[in-house]
């Protein structure tokens, strides 16, 4: 399984993510906590800015997203990312 680097400039850290869990869970497992509600792509509470990289979704989320936003709870990481809370 491919491991991607997730850069968080505001937190001054880089973590690794392998898509075995959600990106939200990976962040939590690394002591980085972000707001969430549904964990299913419905509410949009876990929305963050995507500064660099690519994600996909198994099912399109129902939450409205700008072109530079992703949902931590349900995106699938396709490349190294830089995200901003």
Automatic annotation (TrEMBL):
- Give the SUPFAM superfamilies listed for this entry: 2Fe-2S ferredoxin-like (SSF54292)
Which residue numbers delimit the 2Fe-2S ferredoxin-type domain?
4-85
Q: Which InterPro entries match?
A: 2Fe-2S_ferredoxin-like_sf, 2Fe-2S_ferredoxin-type, 2Fe2S_fd_BS, Beta-grasp_dom_sf
One GO molecular-function annotation for this sequence?
Answer: 2 iron, 2 sulfur cluster binding
Q: Which PROSITE patterns does the protein's record reference? A: 2FE2S_FER_1 (PS00197), 2FE2S_FER_2 (PS51085)
**UniProt superkingdom:** Bacteria
Q: Which Gene3D superfamilies match?
A: 3.10.20.30
Record protein name field:
(2Fe-2S)-binding protein
